[in-house]
Design brief:
11 helices; two-stranded antiparallel ribbon; 6 strands; 243 residues; two-stranded antiparallel sheet; mainly alpha; Puta_zinc/iron-chelating_dom
Length: 243
């Protein structure tokens, strides 16, 4: 029988992490600085490349923290319980995701489009009820959304795989389980799970700095700056615009 970390053990290691680990902010800003200096590609290409690399840097930072306190995620392929939470992103992130999907191979892009069409046909009415809730005012919006058992629009429920895994947003990328995987099946919002969503500050800070620079240069490509940074909504609403 496999031994898993207890809730107390996980908390203890997270406390050690707070005391002993410092996020390497410079790595986030180096990414956008390097692309800002690139002269051979378009602004759109610079932005999308920065987006991909910053997302990867978030994942790299999590790996470094795990190594620091000897934490190993028990999340496994095919486990998708966390894919039933509401995901909130700003307009800029939504546009980045859409642009990235547009650059996928045609067959993959078509698969996602067909999937989204079926998804909104199936869940459209329920989503209207769920997303009318003001996520900035309702403290229970995550729990109530989770109770609905409506999956993420990018989750293939037949395989339990994300259709756009490499561009999954920060809430998806930073939600981890380090104990018995069954806690996610047995509880809608298990207390044992950990969120590294605080890394959003470094990720968004670097993107925002890049957009400020581009704004001053007079070219922010497909981003409406600063409006897209400050407009937040459910991911299901952003992706519905593609239908």
């Amino acid at each position: 029988m496999e031994n898993y970390l207890s809730f107390a053990e996980i908390q203890n290691r997270c406390e050690k992490l707070k005391d002993n680990y410092q996020i390497d902010e410079d790595k986030f800003y180096e990414i956008v600085e390097n692309w800002a200096e690139e002269t051979e590609i378009s602004t759109e290409q610079k932005l999308i490349a920065s987006f991909f690399e910053l997302l990867q840097q978030v994942s790299n930072e999590i790996t470094s923290m795990e190594e620091e306190v000897e934490l190993q995620a028990t999340c496994r392929m095919g486990c998708a319980f966390c894919c039933y939470f509401p995901i909130i992103v700003n307009g800029m992130e939504a546009k980045f995701m859409k642009k990235a999907i547009d650059k996928f191979p045609v067959s993959r892009r078509n698969e996602i489009q067909q999937h989204l069409t079926r998804y909104y046909q199936k869940y459209g009415e329920k989503l209207e009820e769920l997303t009318v809730v003001d996520f900035e005012e309702d403290e229970d919006f995550k729990l109530n959304y989770r109770k609905s058992l409506v999956p993420c629009p990018l989750l293939d429920t037949e395989t339990n795989k994300c259709l756009a895994y490499e561009i999954r947003p920060i809430p998806c990328r930073t939600y981890m389980n380090y104990t018995d995987p069954n806690v996610c099946e047995q509880h809608l919002m298990p207390k044992e799970t950990i969120s590294f969503e605080f890394l959003y500050g470094e990720y968004m800070g670097a993107l925002n700095e890049f957009l400020q620079f581009l704004y001053e240069e007079g070219d922010t490509a497909f981003i409406e700056y600063p409006n897209d940074v400050y407009t937040h909504d459910y991911l299901v609403n952003w992706l519905k615009e593609e239908q």
